[in-house]
Design brief:
Strands 1-4-3-2-5-6-10-7 form an eight-stranded mixed beta sheet, sandwiched between helices. It has a two-stranded antiparallel sheet with strand order 8-9. The relative contact order is 0.17. The chain is elongated. It contains 13 helices and ten strands. By secondary structure, the chain is of the alpha/beta class. The longest helix is centred in the C-terminal third of the chain and has 17 residues, at 213-229.
């Protein structure tokens, strides 16, 4: 592992140095999201994964350089090319990579525009997976149990339009979350509410990790009671019949490369 300045990555470093241990056990890449991302990266021989974490969604047919400000996360990354650095100061020359990717990480960057500008500087194609805080519906967990999540998420996620503009994205693809989504970030268990009762599952989500136990624990106990009584199931009978829901997750593509007509299937 090589090191570079991690300036600008302090916020993400602090969070993931704390929650990163055992991260890969809960955050298992979902094959359907992987397929969408890999098609967006098709043909790229060299890829830099910015905010790489443990290496989820990296294409197997490319030479990948993983960049992350958290040493704890990079130690779980299986690759050989790893750089300890923040997104805002990528230690590479202009145009060093065919493509740059960033998956559920831009909301941790203290300077979004600078980080996206760095991705554009060092690569010819950029692929970013993120969430739009202005999208509706919201996850029921937020509306009914933890409105504190809304304030936290809206403070760190920029509107999708801002990310699209800063990246210069030419393609925006929706990704509806399947009911059996394997990557355990916050939205994954929208039809499997019992998973939110598991402290290990919650710890793998940066949202839960940043809220105090005094907020989380009473809300989880209310959910536990509602599941035991059947109240949750009665309120959400419609969700129990759905296979996927669009909660505002989007794949953005910028620069040269695949067009929406080839990716939107």
């Amino acid at each position: 592992m090589t090191s570079a300045s991690a300036a600008g990555g302090t916020r993400a470093t602090a969070v993931y140095d704390r929650i990163g241990v055992g991260y890969r056990g809960v955050r298992r890449p979902d094959p359907r999201l992987a397929d969408l991302i890999h098609r967006a990266l098709a043909g790229a021989r060299t890829v830099v994964n910015v905010g790489a974490g443990a290496g989820s969604y990296e294409p197997a047919d490319a030479e990948v350089t993983a960049v992350d400000p958290s040493r704890v996360m990079l130690e779980q990354h299986p690759g050989q090319h790893k750089v300890l650095a923040g997104a805002e100061e990528l230690p590479f020359e202009d145009g060093s990579f065919d493509a740059a990717m960033a998956v559920m990480t831009v909301h941790h960057w203290p300077d979004l525009r600078r980080g996206l500008g760095e991705m554009r500087r060092v690569s010819r194609r950029q692929v970013v997976f993120t969430w739009d805080p202005e999208h509706r519906p919201e996850l029921w967990l937020v509306e009914e149990y933890l409105p504190e999540i809304r304030r936290l998420e809206h403070a760190r996620f920029e509107p999708l339009s801002t990310v699209v503009e800063a990246l210069g994205a030419h393609t925006v693809l929706p990704f509806a979350i399947p009911q059996d989504f394997t990557d355990g970030f916050q939205i994954a268990y929208w039809r499997r509410p019992e998973f939110y009762l598991d402290a290990v599952v919650r710890q793998a989500s940066s949202t839960f990790a940043q809220l105090p136990p005094s907020v989380i624990e009473p809300a989880i106990e209310r959910l536990r009671a509602d599941l035991a009584s059947g109240a949750w199931q009665r309120r959400h009978a419609d969700l129990l019949e759905q296979e996927s829901v669009d909660y505002g997750y989007r794949l953005l593509i910028a620069g040269s490369g695949e067009k929406a007509s080839r990716l939107g299937s």
